[in-house]
């Protein structure tokens, strides 16, 4: 009996750790939602009040009516669609080249690409901004969209490359025997089989762009071009902050990424696992 209880105890301890960790990560989300349903005077009461009394659902409609969030949503979707489309297509092409094709200097250039991941974003921020300002000027979405069409980022290329290396080489060889070219193999064989990792790249890119605050802040200074992340900042004034409206708007903005991840989580887990099977 003692031998059978030991694994069960370990399982119980594992679940307790997971529950505790989940609670820690969910606490900010719970705090945001309860604050969105409260009056401003209740939010920072000590000890904290977790159940709003009364519940103010009107904060959500008031938040949407205070600022032009419909315009901010359209602006954000323009950047999101441009980024996700570019990152998925170009990272898949680059990953296919590094994983399935042989060409002079392939491994060297892949190592060089990976070394670029070591550079912090802050290091390249100023020269990148100066370059874009010289080429296209201020108040344009091009600096926020165009880079995604040149590989989609080193991490995305690495993820796709690792996944494509798990696909048997015999599929390429069979397609070559049938007369298919490399582009046809990519389009009709490798890309369809890489659906899981493509969805992972799309999710990563969507989350990064949807939550991006620094990029739009640097390149956009016209309010009509603000994104949702910049729009939230408008609730914080010079002397006061409308915290209940800020939390209500933030809650609504958080919902799409949560829904998207819930829908694509099976592909997300499968794509991550498969990407690490073969180095």
Describe the structure.
The protein is an all-alpha fold and 279 residues long. It has a single domain (59-275), classed as MetI-like (MetI-like fold, Orthogonal Bundle). It has 14 helices and no strands. α3 (58-66) packs across α14 (243-275) and α4 (69-100) packs across α8 (154-164).
Nearest-integer average pLDDT: 86
Oligomer: single chain
Topology as H/E string? HHHHHHHHHHHHHH
Percent of sequence in beta strands:
under 5%
For the secondary structure, the number of strands is 0
Biggest sheet details:
none
Number of H/I helices: 14
Gyration radius over CA: 24 Å
Could you please say which CATH topology applies here? MetI-like fold
Instruction: Return the domain count.
Output: 1
Give the tags.
279 residues; mainly alpha; MetI-like fold
Quick structural summary:
The protein has 279 residues and is mainly alpha-helical. It is 72% helix and 0% strand. The protein has a single domain, classed as MetI-like fold (Orthogonal Bundle).
Secondary-structure map with pairings?
Blueprint: H1 2-36, H2 40-43, H3 58-66, H4 69-100, H5 106-115, H6 121-135, H7 142-145, H8 154-164, H9 169-177, H10 182-193, H11 195-210, H12 214-219, H13 228-233, H14 243-275
């Amino acid at each position: 009996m003692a031998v059978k209880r030991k694994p069960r105890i370990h399982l119980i301890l594992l679940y307790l750790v997971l529950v505790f960790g989940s609670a820690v990560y969910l606490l900010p989300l719970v705090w945001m939602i309860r604050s969105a349903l409260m009056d401003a005077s209740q939010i920072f009461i000590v000890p904290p009040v977790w159940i709003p009394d009364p519940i103010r659902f009107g904060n959500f409609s008031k938040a949407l009516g205070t600022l032009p969030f419909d315009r901010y949503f359209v602006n954000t979707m323009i950047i999101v669609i441009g980024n996700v489309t570019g990152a998925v297509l170009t990272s898949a092409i680059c990953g296919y080249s590094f994983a399935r094709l042989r060409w002079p200097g392939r491994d060297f250039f892949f190592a060089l690409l990976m070394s670029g991941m070591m550079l912090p974003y802050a290091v390249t921020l100023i020269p990148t901004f100066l370059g874009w300002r010289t080429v296209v000027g201020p108040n344009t979405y091009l600096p926020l969209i165009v880079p995604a069409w040149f590989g989609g980022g080193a991490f995305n290329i690495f993820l796709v490359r690792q996944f494509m290396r798990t696909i048997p080489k015999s599929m390429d060889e069979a397609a070559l025997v049938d007369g298919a070219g490399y582009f046809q193999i990519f389009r009709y064989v490798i890309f369809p089989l890489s659906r899981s990792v493509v969805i992972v790249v799309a999710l990563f890119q969507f989350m990064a762009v949807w939550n991006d605050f620094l990029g739009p802040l640097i390149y956009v200074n016209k309010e009509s071009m603000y994104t949702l992340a910049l729009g939230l900042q408008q609730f914080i004034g010079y002397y006061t902050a409308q915290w209940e409206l800020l939390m209500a708007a933030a809650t609504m903005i958080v919902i799409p990424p949560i829904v998207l991840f819930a829908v694509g989580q099976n592909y997300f887990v499968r794509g991550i696992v498969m990407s690490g099977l073969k180095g």
